[in-house]
Amino acid sequence: MLKSNVYITRMIPQETIDALRQFHDVEVNPYDRALTRDELLQQVRGRDAVITLLTDKVDGEVLDAAGPQCKIFANYAVGFNNFDLKAATQRGVIMTNTPGVLDDATATHAWALLLATARRISESERYVRAGQWHGWAPMAFIGQDVDHKTLGIAGLGRIGSKFARKAAAFDMKVIYTNAVREPEFERQYGATFVDKATLLRESDFLSLHLPLLPDTHHYIGAKELASMKPTAVLINAARGPLIDEQALVAALRNKVIWGAGLDVFEEEPNIAAGLAELDNVVIVPHIASATIQTRLAMGKIATDNVISVLKGEPPHTCINPEVLK
Ligand code: GLV
Ligand code: GLV
After folding, report:
1. Digit-coded pLDDT (tens) for 165-202
2. Residue of 239, 245, 266, 295 marked catalytic
3. How far is the CA of 118 from the centre of ligand 2 (A)?
4. Is 54 close to ligand 1, i.e. is its CB under 6 Å away?
5. N or C: which end of the chain has fewer CB within 10 A?
6. Which domains does the chain have, with CATH numbers?
7. pTM here?
8. Is 202 annotated as catalytic?
């Protein structure tokens, strides 16, 4: 097999790069930062395969810059709203993602956010670190019970259903919305399918597990927040633009809802003005899949996809399968 020329837009786990280097020439962005648009356009030129991040926008311009020899863009992420699938299909370029291996890590992280928000972990830790703790106080950092409450889930896909399963540990009532009903899941986990209005109205905790699409943009805005319980907690470890972040800042400030736990933001790495000043929100920097084991597994899928495609075989996780026809 002839060696091909592969580019990776940012350092991923070394073991996975080493595995790829056994077969191909691999170049990796040497900087500890994302490439600028100009750098991306320049670096993809002449490559046979490119491994990208969710921060790299891959559209017709990037695909054309890569050139007609380029066979695959492999995203090191399960989400692929940074990819123009149509433009890739038109040019015969395969696109792949890393589904499956990060479902548990991401669902567990959404739980970490939920528990941290409910029990005011970040806020009270800041207090201890600042030397403000002067003894056990009966009314300090009073949070919300999680056990036996109603858990609302928007989107019962791979990650949403993993998230739902973990609710059994807290004896929660699970309600969900989804494009389709999942009767088997309902039977097994005692979950109830509801419409969006019911989900908003009845959830004590509402966690979003939807893909970012034109019709899920601002799935939660001022109107939706106003229909939630004043004691409700909103969790988002999916994609930032699912929530109108400015509306959320206003809702948190005015106690329209009780709290929020956010892993993702509308304009990463920037966050909406006012958000960081609020104590009733837990904010972390898009780290839901960031575990040693999960990132290795993601790297293995991305590099295996590249190896397969460069061998002339179909990839394991194609997201524009029309291109294979
Ligand atoms: C992370 O956000 C991913 O899509 O994998
Ligand atoms: C708290 O520490 C308690 O003992 O109730």
Report:
1. 999 999 999 999 999 999 999 999 999 999 999 999 99
2. 239
3. 18
4. yes
5. C
6. 5-101+292-319 (3.40.50.720), 103-283 (3.40.50.720)
7. 0.95
8. no
